[in-house]
Amino acid sequence: MRSDGDRAPLLLRLAAAGGLIYLLAPLLIIFVYAFTTEEKSFVWPPPGLTLKWFSVAWSRPDISAALLLSLQVATVATALALVLGTLTAAAVSRTRFFGRETISLLVILPIALPGIITGIALRSAFSTFSIPFSFWTIVLGHATFCIVVVYNNAVARFRRTSASLVEASMDLGADGFQTFRHVILPNIGTALLAGGMLAFALSFDEVIVTTFTAGQQQTLPLWMLEELIRPRQRPVTNVVAMFVVAATFLPILAAFYLTRGGDEIAGSGK
Amino acid sequence: MSALDAGWTPPPRSLGGRLGDLFWRRPGLLVALMLLPPVLWLGIVYIGSLLTLLLQSFYSLDEFSGLVVPEFTLATYAELLRPSNFDIILRTVIMAALVTVASAIIAFPIAYVAARYARGKWKALFYLGIMLPLWSSYLVKVYAWKLILAKEGILTWLFAKLHIAWLLDAILAIPGIGGNSLSVSYIGTFLVFVYIWLPYMILPTQAALERVPVNLIDASSDLGGTPAMTFRKVILPLAFPGIVAGSIFTFSLTLGDYIIPQIVGTSRLFIGQAVYTQQGTAGNIPLAAAFTVVPIVIMGIYLTVAKRLGAFDAL
Fold it and tell me: Do B227 and B170 lie in a common domain?
């Protein structure tokens, strides 16, 4: 949809600009609050600016432990989701088969249904089969809803990748694995990377399902939630919040540049 | 392909090669093998858990012992219709509907400008403007709004600076949706919900708008359609599946959320909070399970309608 040269009507531009401000301003405010000298309330404008909360937050063992657990869970869950999501996407996009629609519904379901349902369903399953809470119970839940992110990215790329590339590779004598290694993987690689990063971000940030599957363990979002409900040290929370926003910024930029290309491969158009 | 198969085939080189050939001849086998792990995972972990949950909702809680009685009964579902519980359901559904409508209205201009007009630097800004809030930590966003809506926070300050503090007071004085400060009112809950789920509405809408062929718009104006008519008769119908796709997210996510109303809002419960308290402190797993069935049923109906409207192709 490209009609170069014309400009949006003023009202439309104002509405869009207003929308963007609504979307971005709250995140910027986080950055200001991280430096405030005020300890007890959320007073605006901040009475003074200081850097001391950064060192306080840095030396807190509970924060670093929670951060480490979050990173570990996200890594394992992403790896699982990458395998399962890619397999599903490949199967669904390559062939038409009976139950294809059901499969895509099955993949979308964990994210289409409210997270609390996934959470409580998993918890009741754990208690029914007396599975104790552990690192793996968290991973189990996370991988389940991360599959859809990988799947969505991969399926979109598979659709754009022409089947004739695969056929050409086979005609030229490559076997299935060579074709996968040298033709399919380079084609879907960036989509997988983008999907994987988004899955990682999703897992890293997940709180609703995690509250049901973590038991006594504390991931970074659970630490944050605890702090939101029963604030103990607001300035430290501000710093952690700012850190988390800054940390999401880079993967998003990377995903943007990775998924933007990919159309330019010769012969890939359908 | 069959002509090739019938002719010369290279001698299989290795196990991998032979497997590859087998899969090439019988694509069904490969598909089945590829689907096995994800279907097993989702089938066992997810559907299995959902079914155990569903089963629980047909049990009941013994009032005296506080233990779950594993006998089939519909009594727990009947409990949902009690005024106190039914209010929770009604409140949540109304909130979800309002949030969905508001998101659609706010999202459309952003999606439209991003899809049709934004180029270069602006395109990147729009991308960031949508993706950054989408992927930033959910809790951090809620936290940011707690800062904004607090009584001593930025909104109060802004209203005072603009000399319209009376307006804020008037809004807060509205019975039912007002409150002591924005952070303990339904307005606050509503604002945060809309903010958090808005990107989920923008993205599918934008995707649908990007697919609108520009020559259709040109044709409409060539044939004498005013911009308003073109919008109503060409753009909106083509964007509609995208909006419906977005509404699946905004509606579903609002239905199940229990953290936002807990942190910003009144003390009255939403479905998610009811589930959480019932399974946690109250220990009434059957009632919690019955409560979760409500959003499942609502979303089931919603998804069926959405499918009819073609929303799945716009996801």
Answer: yes
**H or E stretch covering B291:** helix B285-308
Which residue range(s) make up the domain with B30? 2-43
Looking at this predicted complex, what is its ipTM? 0.77
- The answer to whether residue B227 is domain-embedded is yes
Asked if B160 and B97 sit in the same domain, the reply is yes
B249 token code pair:
């997210």
Indicate whether B235 belongs to any domain. yes
In a domain, B49, yes or no: no
B140 and B271 in a single domain? The answer is yes
Q: How many helices (H) and strands (E) are present in chain A, helices listed first?
A: 12, 0
Read off the pTM: 0.80
pLDDT digits (tens, 9 = 90+) for A63-122: 889 999 999 999 999 999 999 998 888 888 766 666 777 887 888 888 777 778 888 888
The 10s digit of each residue's pLDDT in B259-284 is 899 888 888 889 988 888 888 777 78
Q: Which of B4, B21, B110 sits opposite A175 (nearest CB)?
A: B21
Distance from CA of A229 to the nearest CA of B (A): 7
Domain assignment present for residue B137? The answer is yes
| CA distance to A70, A73, A207, A214, per residue, from A66 (Å) | 6, 11, 13, 12
Rounded-to-integer distance, Cα B195 and Cα A144, Å? 26
What pLDDT shows up at residue B248?
86
Q: Where are the domains of chain A?
A: 10-50, 61-260
Q: Sort out which chain A residues have CB atoms less than 8 A from B95's CB and list them.
A: none
B21, B89, B135: which to substitute to probe chain A, counting the most A Cβ within 10 Å? B135
A231 at the B interface (CB within 8 A)? no
Task: Output the CATH code of domain A61-260.
Answer: 1.10.3720.10
Full DSSP string of B43-92: IIIIIHHHHHHHHHHTSEE-TTT--EE-S--SHHHHHHTSHHHHHHHHHH
**Chain B contact for A193 (CB, 8 A cutoff):** no
A168, A187 contact by CB (below 8 A):
no
Least Cα separation, residue B243 to chain A (angstroms) = 15
How confident is the model over A18-60, as pLDDT tens digits? 999 999 888 888 888 878 777 777 777 777 777 777 887 788 8
| Pairwise CA distance, residues A216 & A120, whole Å | 16
* Cβ pair B250, B100 in contact under 8 A: yes
Q: Among B20, B115, B126, whose Cβ lies nearest the Cβ of A1? A: B115
